[in-house]
Amino acid sequence: MRTSTQTRTTRETDITVNLNLGGGGINISTGIGFFDHMLTSFATHGKFGLELTCKGDLHIDAHHTVEDDGIVLGAAFAAALGDKAGIVRFGSAFVPMDEALAFACADISGRPFLAFEGGGLAAMSNPGLESALVVEFMRAFAFNAGITLHLSVPYGRDCHDMTEAMFKALGRALRRACALESDAVVSTKGVL
Asked: Does this model's pTM top 0.90?
């Protein structure tokens, strides 16, 4: 199966996510062009099928749209994994992008946590997407997906390159962690 459809409607956002961990088409529409590009990079490098539409209160700012997309995408990710039987569980990836380098390491453990080191990223900004919101997205995603996530961008000068390398690294790390290797749950407890 490894698929999930999730919806969430609030006074601030209306979101639908269709996720297929085995691949498929990618169609992202959040109303924030740069964020669409980042989510497309994430899905492309994760080799995930992802359709995500969001109508958010962008007349206020991008915060609700970005954070709520993380919530719903994280919930879709958790649902698509089900009981997590057979997955590798751990995955990591380094991704260079021109002058920037990003690292992502994930444990699909059921214990949500985010460790984030942005290398000055928070002081920069992308068009339509404040860099501080990238952290909010990653936190919402990790906590709703039930994963321990470590992200680092140790250096870089261009905010676009630093952010994109991070989303690509996340996709690649999760692709490895979601890969099937057996029928068993990889945990001494027997459950994740």
From this structure: yes
